[in-house]
Fold this sequence. Notes:
Elements: E1 2-7, H1 11-20, E2 26-32, H2 36-39, E3 63-65, H3 68-72, E4 79-82, H4 89-98, E5 102-106, H5 113-124, E6 130-133, H6 142-151, E7 157-167, H7 177-180, H8 182-199, E8 204-211, E9 217-225, E10 231-239, E11 246-254, E12 257-262, E13 269-273, E14 279-280, H9 288-302, H10 311-330, E15 334-335
Helix pairs in contact: 1-9, 4-5, 5-10, 8-10
The protein binds nicotinamide-adenine-dinucleotide.
Amino acid sequence: MVKVGVVGLGMMGLTHLDAYQGVSGARVVAVADKDDARLAGQVNARGNIPGQSRGGYDLTDAARYSDGMDLIRDSNVDMVDLCLVTPLHARFAVAALEAGKHILIEKPLARTSDQARQILDAQAKSSGLAMCAQCMRFWPGWPWLKQAVDSRRYGPVRSATFLRIGETPDGPFYHDSPSSGGAALDLHIHDTDFIHHLFGMPTQVTSVGRTKADGGVDHITTLYRYDTVPHVVAEGGWVPQKGYGFKMQYTVMFERAIALFDLAHKPALRLIEDGKEPVAIDLDPGMGYEYEIAYFIDCIAAGREPERSSIRDAAQSLCILEAELESVASGRPQFVADIT
Ligand SMILES: NC(=O)c1ccc[n+]([C@@H]2O[C@H](COP(=O)([O-])OP(=O)(O)OC[C@H]3O[C@@H](n4cnc5c(N)ncnc54)[C@H](O)[C@@H]3O)[C@@H](O)[C@H]2O)c1
């Protein structure tokens, strides 16, 4: 049994607590939040997706800390699940790794690629395993796409387009671009990372976006340059109007088929093969969170590196995203540097 401590009981901490209820082999033994009401389990939080963060978890037997650093020092905790706001990821991740804990870090891995490098360095010296919670790598319908691309069963990819637009989440963090990184870092990185997962590091990116007064980019569209795939594009953004909801889609054109994912469509994933009727692809139930957590728990139990969503991959995705932001600022294509 892996004994877990969850640090930060905001939108994502509560979402993870939900997920642990469906994961065998793990038990939440400690929680930390500096907000007393959240620590007492009295607050629920609204996520982008209906059904996310349902509540109903029982924290009666869990140790409670008002500072995540105290939870990291708890010798009863094997794995720290870090659900703090992004600028705090590096400091807490490094402390947890130095304490020899396994660590799951919410995406984005860190606020900057320099901070991501600090986490990589700490992990290299630690006995703890580390994984970044890039949940799209586990979201029903997205591993299917990865498998379809890798197997080439519909031929090579001719075009891949991704769209992710939602209402700006509630809370001061999301309205403060220097903290959250705006929609580009906080939301669009899901697609940046998945494109990286599918096709590797692009050589160049060309991005356009809307930059707010505080420097945050809240709407971005990027063309990713690959030698092997002619057309790879992703658009992501936040809108201020309540009632817009949340759109999460991909359209991937293979040589002999088109795959269409739309979270709002039932069924969410459809495949149209040359000369055949469109078919719905059966998907596992739920969201990506329970699958990513179950995967990491399995890795810990087996002593295996979580290669499916490594912190090195997440650091590289941060490098791609930073190149996208530089392209928005400069108005020119930008070469993508690897994590140094
Ligand atoms: N994977 C996804 O789909 C997804 C979705 C949204 C957000 N996120 C990411 O999850 C992270 C957290 O976002 P959120 O919306 O849950 O934030 P949040 O502000 O709702 O929650 C953060 C919590 O941390 C607590 N906290 C602050 N300092 C602390 C400390 N020293 N010790 C213990 N607790 C402390 C706060 O009181 C708060 O409850 C961010 O990095 C965000 O980008 C991921």
